[in-house]
Structure formats: C-alpha cells, structure tokens
Write a structure and sequence with these properties.
- By secondary structure, the chain is mostly helical.
- It has 21 helices and seven strands.
- It has helices at residues 3-11, 51-64, 82-92, 101-108, 112-124, 153-159, 185-195, 250-255, 277-291, 300-306, 308-312, 317-327, 336-343, 347-350, 354-385, 396-410, 417-423, 435-450, 455-464, 466-473, 475-488, and strands at residues 46-47, 128-132, 146-151, 161-164, 176-180, 197-199, 220-222.
- A three-stranded antiparallel sheet has the order 1-3-2.
C-alpha cells in the first residue's frame, strides 16, 4: 500500500449507515484560510477543473464540519450550511466566475449582507480565491470581483487524491488530478451524487397545509439530464434552472380542462415592449444622467421624479438639452437634481409644441458648432503665438516662480544708488529737478517697466521729445520702453501679468 493510500485509510474510516461524512475527516485540523492567503497567487489549493468537481469539494466542506465561521468572527452565519451551498451553486455556473452582488441577490433571494457573508465563508474555507478584487468608486459603476474556484488541500489529503504538476514552470495552483486512493473512492461517489443535485430555496410554509417533503432548508432535489451551463451563454442547458415542471394528467389534457405546460410565444415585437408613463420617466432620467456631466452619479429615481413633467409631455433627452441651452448653463453645480428641478420648471408649458422644441434644438446645435469653431481658433492662435512646445503651468505658485525667474533673466536690473547718483551729474536740460528727485523718478520708471508698464516713459517721449526723456530717464530705459510698446502692437508678440 502506498503512503498516500495509507494516509487516506487512516483519515477516512469505514462508512457508517448514517452516512456521516463529518467522521471521515475528524482527525484533520480546522479549516480556515486567512485574508492574506485568499488570493490565487497565495492559495495552497488547486483550481477546480469544472463546476461539477468544485461542487464535490463544496459538499465535502459542508459535511465535514472542519470550517466553523463563529471561531473567527462574532457575527454572521453560524455554520457552513445549505444556504452557502446554494450560493456556491450559482457560482459554479459562471464562466468566468465574476458574480455581482446584485446578481446573487436576485438569484438566491438573500439580502446583500447575507450574500457578502457567504462569499466570505467560501473564501475562508479555501473554496474561492481572488483573481481580481472589485472596486466601488463614487459616481461610477461598481466593478465585480473575479474569483477562481479552488479545491482545498485538505480535500485532497482526506480522500487520498494524487495531483501532479504537468509543467515545471507552472504555479502550484495549476496541479491536475492524476489518481485517487481506493479508500476515498466510496466517499467521492457520495459527493458526486450530492454535486448532481441542487439545494432549492425553501418554500413558504402554509398555515393550513403541512409542509411538503423536500421543502425544508438543506433538502436536495435531483436535477436530471442537466448539461451544466453559465448565464453567459458558454453552454446549453437541458432543463430550466427554476426547477422541475409538474405536468397535469393526460385525461385533463385530452378533455381540455388543463392548459398545456408548453409556454406560449411572446407577442412582444423585436423592438422591445412599449413603455408606460413610469417607464418613459425612468428612460429619460437614465439618458440624462449619462448625457449631462453635472448629473453623473445622481439617483435615477430622483431624476425621473424631477423630469416627470417633460417625460409625460413626450420630451427626449435632445429636447431637454435644447431647453437647458435657452435657460442658460452653469459651471458649478452643488446638487444636480435640485438645479434640474429649477431649470425644468414650466418647460413643458413654454415649449408646448414639437415645432418650438425643434427650434430650441437648432439653437442649441448652432451654439455647439460656434463653440467648437471658437476652440479651433483658440488652438490655432496659441500655435501661432508660441513657437515652442512649452505651455504655461497651471499652478499659480509655479507661475509666480517662473515669472520671477524670467524677470531676473530678461528684465533690466536696477542700477545701484551710487551709480545712479554719478550719472545724474551728466543730465542737463531738465530744470527744477534735484539729483534725489531724478533718482526717485528713474527708480519709479524702472519698476513700472519691469512690471510691463511703459506708459510713464512713452508719455514723456510724446510730450517732451525723446532727447529730453532720455535725459530724464536714461537712454537705456527709454529704448527698452519703446521696444515693449512697439511689440505690444504686433500680432506676433503678447505679454501679460500672472
């Protein structure tokens, strides 16, 4: 007998009449996977080949009793029971296994919190591992997590399953089954029968009638002739997932007293069913939240209630855009639904005919085209204005720093006070001005020139002549001021203050 078969013989005793699977693995330690090991890259288990073999491992964990949730938390379900198996049955049909919480709530009838509890239990039992963890960003649609269906290592040890890694470069979770010990074959056959059945949602018990057999939670009903499939059209199914259909007696069918179980074909056309008033409101609200940026993230039912007047009048999302253009748009919105309620007040009475709405749409489209042309002209002007690829920084602090650097490099440096006083002795032709007054005048003109203001020097040139202005302010300042003044009138040069 091999070592694996000997281990299986020790851990799996002979079956009992009560078919108690928990006793078969009583010597194994408790089953729990911490959060850090709940990822595919850190898991010690192996990927299940298909949903059927994975359900065998799920039933083994449910019957073994090795995993007890209340050992690790103080809230949530007390045991790995039939409800967890029902959630696993839905996961076994998905390919890839990427269930949304809303999808599982709709399929199982559980609450959102209960679904999250049971998904956590499947991960802690080593039956699920994260491939990609979902995200929830405010204002965007939630992304569902993607799982890998795993078979715990304890399952392989208990049943004596031999695995082999066919590729040496492959990770350990890619192990494949190569055989099973003789002692684990009987238990595997029992698990296979359980995997072929489905645990149904318990029916509501009636007060006048006794509960029928098989309606208690935990009782499984057979699903015969089923070809396993996924809701994502990966395969085909031979029976409905809603359960088996009870057919009436043939005598009633022949007499016409009972209706045929064959469902009638729907008379709905290919274009979809016709929406009623509430449906039109929700359709318009959904389109508004998608088309208008300032309504993104708003509640669709609230927008449907706000836009109920225009929706009942037969408005489309284009009609609403035309009306909003007439009312005027705002750049800062604190509460989108409140602003929409104010803007749509009385809209259906003002634009009460299709012709008026069409005229508003034409005006809105004309404004859109004008704005588009204006943006094109701005881009062209900026391209012609700047020769390089450098753009002004958007940060105010960086702009101030760049302005200081450009001022220090390109603008004239103020002359020291002593040099200015020495140059004043050569100034002639300016009467009634002392040396200190001339120095103050030149310092003021230099500061205004550094700030880009040339009016003080140009006015002096126009009023007194260039020679007198050069005696008053200096030839260098007058030359630079005239250069900046002539450049400001050119279309090839612009400057501004930051």
């Amino acid at each position: 007998m091999s070592a694996v078969a000997a281990l299986a013989a020790v851990t799996v005793p002979a079956p009992r009449p009560s078919v108690d699977d928990a006793a078969a693995v009583a010597v194994l330690p408790g089953l729990f996977v911490p959060e850090a090991s709940q990822w595919l890259s850190t898991s010690s288990g192996r990927i299940a080949g298909d949903g059927y073999s994975w359900m065998q491992a799920v039933h083994w964990v449910a019957g073994s009793g090795l995993y007890k949730p209340r050992r690790h938390r103080s809230h949530g379900p007390r045991s790995f029971g039939p409800t967890t198996v029902r959630v696993a049955q839905e996961l076994a049909q998905l390919s890839p296994c990427r269930p949304g919480i809303e999808y599982l709530v709709r399929r199982t009838g559980l609450s959102e919190r209960s679904v999250e509890y049971h998904l956590g239990m499947l991960r802690e039992a080593g039956l699920l591992a994260y491939v990609v963890r979902g995200t929830r960003v405010r204002g965007e649609s939630a992304q569902a997590s993607e799982f890998a269906r795993m078979v715990p290592l304890e399952f392989d040890v208990a049943l004596g399953i031999r695995t082999v890694l066919r590729d040496d470069a492959a990770p350990q979770y890619a192990r494949a089954v190569s055989g099973i010990a003789e002692a684990g074959r009987e238990l595997m056959a029992k698990l296979a029968k359980k995997a072929a059945r489905k645990v149904r949602k318990p029916r509501a018990k009636s007060s006048s009638k006794a509960p029928s057999k098989g309606t208690e939670q935990g009782v499984v009903t057979p699903v015969s002739g089923e070809i396993r499939c996924t809701p994502m059209q990966v395969g085909s199914s031979g029976s409905s997932s809603a359960g088996t259909t009870s057919f009436p007696p043939e005598s009633k069918l022949a007499s016409g007293e009972a209706k045929s179980p064959t469902p009638k074909k729907s008379k709905v056309k290919a274009g979809g069913r016709k929406l009623n008033r509430v449906g039109r409101r929700y359709q318009l609200a959904r389109e508004l939240t998608q088309e208008l940026d300032w309504l993104r993230g708003c509640s669709v039912p609230r927008i449907a209630w706000v836009a109920r007047g225009v929706a009942d009048a037969g408005w489309t999302v284009t009609d609403v855009k035309g009306w909003l253009h007439l009312r005027g748009e705002t750049g800062r919105v604190h509460r989108g639904s409140g602003l929409l309620a104010v803007l749509l007040a009385g809209a259906e009475t003002v634009l009460d005919t299709p012709a008026k709405r069409a005229d508003a749409i034409e005006q809105w489209r004309g404004a859109q085209e004008a704005a588009r042309r204006h943006r094109i002209q701005q881009v062209r002007a900026r391209t012609e204005r700047f020769e390089g690829d450098w753009d002004a920084p958007t940060s105010q602090a960086v702009r101030r720093h760049v302005n200081e650097v450009f001022t220090a490099v390109f603008h004239p440096q103020p002359a020291p006070e002593e040099e200015a006083m020495l140059e004043l002795s050569d100034v002639s032709g300016v009467e009634d001005l002392e040396a200190a007054e001339l120095a103050q005048t030149r310092a003021e003109a230099r500061e205004r020139l550094m700030a880009g203001d040339t009016s003080l020097i140009t006015v002096a040139v126009d009023a007194m002549g260039r020679d007198t202005a050069e005696q008053l302010y200096g030839a260098d300042l007058v030359h630079r001021a005239l250069q900046l003044a002539s450049g400001a009138r050119s279309s090839l040069m612009t400057y501004r203050r930051w």
